[in-house]
Amino acid sequence: MAFMRGHLLPQKEMTAGEFRAWLRQFDADGDGRISREELQRALRSLHTWFAWWKARAAMKEADVNRNGVIEEEEEEEMGRLIAYANERLRIKIYEYDSC
């Protein structure tokens, strides 16, 4: 991972654990949940075009219980967010370390 303006930036390939660690940087209130606004800030840090739209689409895809946040402990929600990042954000996320 690389640094930019106080945040770690993900590489094009990473493990699921590294992806989760990167997302935690944007959990402003430290509750272990990522809101749409926090996800939008994360996407903006990648200089993603239409970050607001992609954050909205990611929430629609990943927020299974429709409570407005993606909970880190909720494996299904994180799995769906990782799948979205793989498919739509072009970040290759592996489930396990290749070592």
UniProtKB/TrEMBL annotation:
Gene Ontology MF terms: calcium ion binding
Entry keyword set: Calcium, Repeat
Pfam families in the record: EF-hand_5
InterPro entries: Centrin_CML-like, EF-hand-dom_pair, EF_Hand_1_Ca_BS, EF_hand_dom
Domain of life of the organism encoding this protein: Eukaryota
Domain named EF-hand: residues: 14-49
Protein name in UniProt: EF-hand domain-containing protein
Native organism: Ensete ventricosum (Abyssinian banana)
Lineage of the organism: Eukaryota, Viridiplantae, Streptophyta, Embryophyta, Tracheophyta
